[in-house]
Specification:
Blueprint (H helix, E strand, L loop, with lengths): L5 H18 L3 H6 L1 H5 L12 H15 L13 H10 L8 E3 L11 E4 L10 H5 L5 E4 L2 E4 L9 H5 L5 E4 L2 H5 L5 E3 L5 E3 L9 H5 L5 E3 L3 H9 L4 E5 L11 H10 L4 E4 L1 H20 L5 E2 L4 H9 L14 H12 L4 E6 L3 H6 L7 E4 H10 L28 H9 L8 E5 L3 H13 L8 E5 L15 H13 L8
Helix pairs in contact: 1-4, 1-16, 12-14, 12-17
Length: about 475
Amino acid sequence: MNNAGQAIHIKKEILVRIIKAFLSDNFEEQARLIPYAMRPKGMEVPYRCCIYKERAIIKDRTIAGLGFPIEEDDETVSLATYAKKAIERKEIDDKNLTVLQAACKGCATNRIYVTDLCQGCVARPCQSACKFGAVSIQNGKSVIDDSKCKKCQMCAKVCPYKAIVKITVPCEDSCPVGAIKKDETGFASIDYEKCINCGRCIAACPFGAVHEKSQIIDILKAIKSDKKVIAMIAPSIAGQFPGNIYQLKSAIIKAGFDDVYEVAQGADVTAENEAKEFAERMENGQKFMTTSCCAGYNQLIKKHLPEIKPFVSDTKTPMYYTAEIVRKAYPEAILVFVSPCVAKRAESYENKDVNYVMNFEELGALFVAKQIQITECDESRYVTESSKQARCFGFSGGVADSVKAALPEEIDIKPCIINGLNKESIRQLKSYAQKGECEEGCNMIEVMCCEGGCIGGNAAMNNQKAAKKQIDALASASEDIKKI
């Protein structure tokens, strides 16, 4: 879940205004006026040094909302021009994230630091704990040599006064693969060769400086065209909005889509196929298999962890199978996956059946812009009802539970859950790949990029406990998955 607080409300307001501008008689002019409408003359400045800085940052956020990178912005180009370019755009590029340097704080360097709480104690536990000789005593106080420090934090752990702290750069600290760093200007910059599109940096930055580049205008253009536009909603969406999953379908259709499919339907296919594959691999003597439905994890394998590829399931993701189903029913339609995270945008570029990705925040903004109340909508059933287990794919442990439920009882499965990718869990996966087995004795590893699963995605809006409660309620009224 995105924890950037007030920055999220600002982003949502901008999305709502972009959608309203598109629906108006003069999109370009209404888009140009967004910063001035949000920060009118005479308004008290809530966050920045002056109203002009506020407007500049709102302009940058609007550029991202229109689907363009901030890094390539010429500040002399007006939002009206960007709106015109968005209307004329035929293709979207594959770089999903952009950094608003105007909003970036340019945080202090990530390092271990001795504060004034240091008492210069005789025991010198910090000095004894450091294996790298980075801690010395100067003028009766501990001092850390940054050139020698490995940031292991052992000194901080043993300090009796808690006088040693880690100064963190939130976006850098959150990235499990070191894809975001300060560039020569001192501001955050993304290395797309390393980036796995996990969205952690978006959620971590308290200034909202890291943005997804939205595809909302492209989706609205599709809805306005004469083509049918079909929404495919991720299982975790059941925990994000008021009302139930059937009212949500009606609300999405009211917003302009022609039909709605649960991606949980594809999750049933994924679970069944992974269960078959697991049984075959175990029969052939392989020690373990990992799941393959998390797009962030698949990006990690491709860019950073190729050694674990032989142990990863060849089964496709729920989005893949759902898109296949929808494409058969609507061969010429525009297919839009409604997602909890930015990683699914990266996956969509590799799938010819998926045209666009809309995240939960953007769908919520569409409801607000069109004044649609989900709880006031009638219930609309799905052509195919998904299983109890498939509807639980959206939280940690759900995929493993689905595979287990699909297997015959005589097949022994011992799941291990990787609940969120970080440096430690990546080392753990590397170790499994090198040894060819899991130390815990498990034989099925479920890997979720986000802590908590998809309900912890960067575009998730509800807290995980409440989201899981809503999903559990839906699942309890559903049928069990069929065994293979």
